[in-house]
Amino acid sequence: MPRIPSPAIAAAGYAVARWTKKRPLGGAVLAVAGGVAAREWQQAGGAKAAVGLTAGYVAAFAGSHPLAKKIGAWPAVFSVAGGMAAASWAVTRGKH
Question: S-S: 68 plus which of 26, 55, 63, 73, CB 3.0-4.6 Å?
Fold first, then answer.
């Protein structure tokens, strides 16, 4: 099964919240995506990598809210998603 890039998954959560006007639904998409990502991180890098990257994931998306007030919602989502993709690559590269 082909993998979906993490920035696309992150943007999907925001898109669901924006287009359905239901923020909890968007949050649910982000939570599911985070769970899938945590499993991938654990398999690729072990428990410490998964815990660290999951903490970063939660912090990044919490931080996207104030960032959105400064640069806009979509740029904030893509910035934190890109940052998480880079962190994921840096921590798990060569371990797949």
Answer: 73
Three-class secondary structure of residue 44 per DSSP: helix
Cα–Cα nearest to 87, from 12, 1, 10 = 10
Residue length, the chain? 96
The whole-angstrom separation of Cα 85 and Cα 5 is 8
| CA–CA dist 49, 21 (Å, integer) | 34
- Chain centre distance of CA 29: 10
Query: Contact 60/84 with Cβ under 8 angstroms?
Result: yes
Encode pLDDT of 32-50 as tens digits: 888 888 888 888 889 999 9
* Residue 70 near residue 18, CB atoms below 8 Å: no
Please give the model's pTM, rounded to 2 decimal places: 0.79
Compute the mean pLDDT over every residue in the chain, rounded to the nearest whole number: 83
CA–CA gap between residue 42 and residue 47 (Å, rounded)? 5
